[in-house]
Write a structure and sequence with these properties.
The structure holds three protein chains of three kinds.
Chain A (H helix, E strand, L loop, with lengths): L2 H32 L6 H19 L6 H19 L9 H27 L14 E4 L2 E4 H23 L1 H11 L1 H6 L4 H26 L7 H15 L4 H18 L8 H15 L8
Antiparallel strand pairs in A: 1-2
Helix pairs in contact in A: 1-5, 1-8, 1-9, 1-10, 2-3, 2-4, 2-8, 2-9, 3-8, 5-6, 5-8, 9-10, 9-11, 10-11
Chain B lengths: L5 E10 L2 E11 L4 E5 L6 H9 L6 E6 L2 E2 L5 H6 L2 E4 L11 H8 L3 H5 L1 H11 L1 H5 L10 H14 L4 E5 L7 H16 L3 E5 L3 H7 L2 E6 L2 E7 H5 L2 H8 L9
Parallel strand pairs in B: 3-8, 3-9, 6-7, 7-8
Antiparallel strand pairs in B: 1-2, 1-4, 4-5, 9-10
Helix pairs in contact in B: 3-7, 5-7
Chain C lengths: L2 H21 L4 H26 L7 H18 L4 H23 L4 H22 L3 E3 L2 H5 L3 H24 L1 H11 L1 H6 L4 H26 L2 E3 L6 H15 L5 H16 L6 H15 L4 H15 L1
Antiparallel strand pairs in C: 1-2
Helix pairs in contact in C: 2-7, 2-10, 2-11, 2-12, 3-4, 3-5, 3-10, 3-11, 4-10, 7-8, 7-10, 8-10, 11-12, 11-14, 12-13
Classes of the chains: A mainly alpha, B alpha/beta, C mainly alpha.
Chain lengths: 291, 245, 308
Amino acid sequence: MDPSVIGQKLVFGLFVGSNYGVVAVGLTLIFGVMRVLNVAHGELVMLGGYASYIAFNALGVDPYLSVVLSAISLFLLGLLLNTVLFQYVERLDEEQRIKNSLLISFGLALVLQNLALFAFSADDRSVRAAYAGGAFVIAGIVFPYTRVLTFVVGTAVVGALYLFLQRTYFGMALRATAQDWEAAAGVGINVRRTYLLTFGIGSALAGIAGSLVLVTFSISPTIGLAWTLKALVVIVLAGMGSVYGAFLAGLLLGVVENLSTIWVGAEYQQMVGLLLFLAVLLLRPRGLFSR
Amino acid sequence: MTAPLLEVRGVAADYGDVRALWDVNLHVGAGEIVALVGPNGAGKTTLMRTIAGLHRPSAGSVVLDGTDIHQLAAHRTVERGLVLVPEGRHLFSEMSVMENLRLGAFSPRARRSMAQSLDRVLGIFPILRERQAQIAGTLSGGQQQMLAIGRALMSLPRVLLLDEPSLGLAPLVVRSIFEVITSVNRDGITVLLVEQNAHLALAIANRAYILEQGRVVGEGTGSELLHDKQVQRAYLGYVEASAEA
Amino acid sequence: MTIALRLGLLAALLAVLALVPQVLTGRADILNLLFLILLYVTLGESWNIVGGFAGQVNLGHAAFFGIGALTARQLWLAAHWPFPIAFLAGGVAATLFALLVGVPTFRLRGAYFSIGTLGLAEALRIAVSNIFPNINALPADITATYDIAQHYYLALLLAVAVVAVAYVSLNARIGLGWLAVREDEEAARATGVNLTYHKLMALVVSSFFAGLCGATFALHQASFYAEFAFEPAWTFDAVLIAFIGGVGTVVGPVIGAVFYILVRELLAVNVSQFHPIIFGVLFILIVLLLPGGLIDVWSRLRRATRKV
């Protein structure tokens, strides 16, 4: 097998993996801090894509800059959803919280998907930046501009999150709340507000991922479940609650999926991830990257 | 007599259908050390958590410096100067000593004086200065307790609630912890202390209460209870010889 | 309401249902509607046994439905097995699958079990869509004798069977075990309840009826492509029906199914997205505010009016 073919698959695996990573990071952040499992996360990705689509078509905003708009609007949507819906599970104990948030978000996913179908119709949408058409080639491997930009933006976003969580006081408070919410309240941290903000940030991350999907692939109102499932696979691989591990696991999944097409047909590509997911669930439920 | 700094009035607390506290009344005067002793399961931790705002009372109220605080969320009581060092310490075990201390000063009032507070706390606990970058979960039991108290001090408490500070610690370490408690009290911090080690608690306390099965069954000064035969039999494990001078 | 009166009403209801095709011979549309309702009763009730009685939120229900559908269809049309045997084989195949995956997946707790079953069902769907990509249509000789009344009776029998089994098992010793598992697994284990056995039994019953439900569906469809029966929508519909009607009760999924299909068919005239939106919102409200579902609403109303 020609090494540049393997190299190509690896590189493309990293590109699509960075998308998986950004989506998964949002979901695992919310889960890690507040023990809420939002299976409508994929719908938030979808809505982020549409936010960018609207920004591009109605306002002529550059597709990559529209990521900012998408992040902001999904952040606000996240605040709304937490206030109207998810805060009501916060009073439950951890096990009930996870179960109820799963059920509620399942209903939410249904609602969001159909609202989108109603508003946007079922057609696929995609957007391409005028300048991003070409590619550069290194050692026989093609690096399309769109994919590279997407990878860079995705990595930068996760990097920014890292800086926020590790280097700022508020980021530290967020991590503290994730570890022990009672102790956090005991040092004066407003746990409710921290949850609210975390949900906003996680949703914003979904929105950013959605914009990147719009620009590299395409979106339609029904892509939600696939992305939620993808995110779930990644966070199980990483270990639920492990934020940076989720990004790494996303890259890993992308690479594994792509490389698997060497042996398995492209139609079975998605299944590879699912089987890996099931294997990890059964053999090492704590995930690959947790201590 | 000036009004007490902290008052618990007729507090009742439930876990679901089970009542843990019945009509508890106690008060803590400014500058005092008050101890709360009693058997396991008496409700001491429930009471501390209720005072700190982590548990909602089913009846009664908690009054701090004249203001009713029992409706406040836990983080707000910290802002008003009521800080709990919980049973089992509840450190942010994946974070460093320094991060734990800095988080202790999260509330706005405390954050303004973070630098001074850090200096002060590291002065009280030099071992924490030595190990400031170490991850909290890897500290020894005694060091963790010191960190927990240090973190609480960072919140600039007026009333410090301590739930079982000697739990799981070697006697020598317990001694130094209690020295810190008395020293901190001399600096003006009021202390409410729950302790298994009734002897030590009663020895340093101005006053004390006995809690049994969710009710206050005894009250007195520290030395009164220390020399009380029944208390001795029940909680101190010895009975003094009857020849008292 | 006395037991005798209740039984009498039940018998009357069943009699009416049995006679419907005789009375409404021309009205294939109404028969179709009733068929759908009965099909969804089975769909919801079968899920309810593992999700409501035993409290294990299984998000892979579509896998059982799909296996039942695919097996029955293939055996009947491709292998030319007689209709009733193919039908039962659908249920058996689904049960075998449940036994195969049940033991490993039940090692997962809570949310892990839910997302694990979801992932498993999706993996199966992808596999099926690749192995059986073609649409197959009923051959001419069968479409000639296509009689909706037959399908209606099959669905009716199945619905009655699953509700009866649900009722009987819930009131039997195994039902007690299920409730214990649902309420508190640790406590159940401490009192000697074999967790794996009870969860597996619930899954076996659930999968058997879900498989038969799928088989009923497959035998009814003129044209059929395998992947459709494995779509997660079947799981979601089952969950919606069970919760909205009253999860964990015997009658809940029945009410849920009636409500769900009636609203869907009535609203289908207009915008087809309204139905899922309404049910999504209703589902959220029920999980948050009224965990007992519509049944609970009904009994609360009765209690409230009785106070007067």
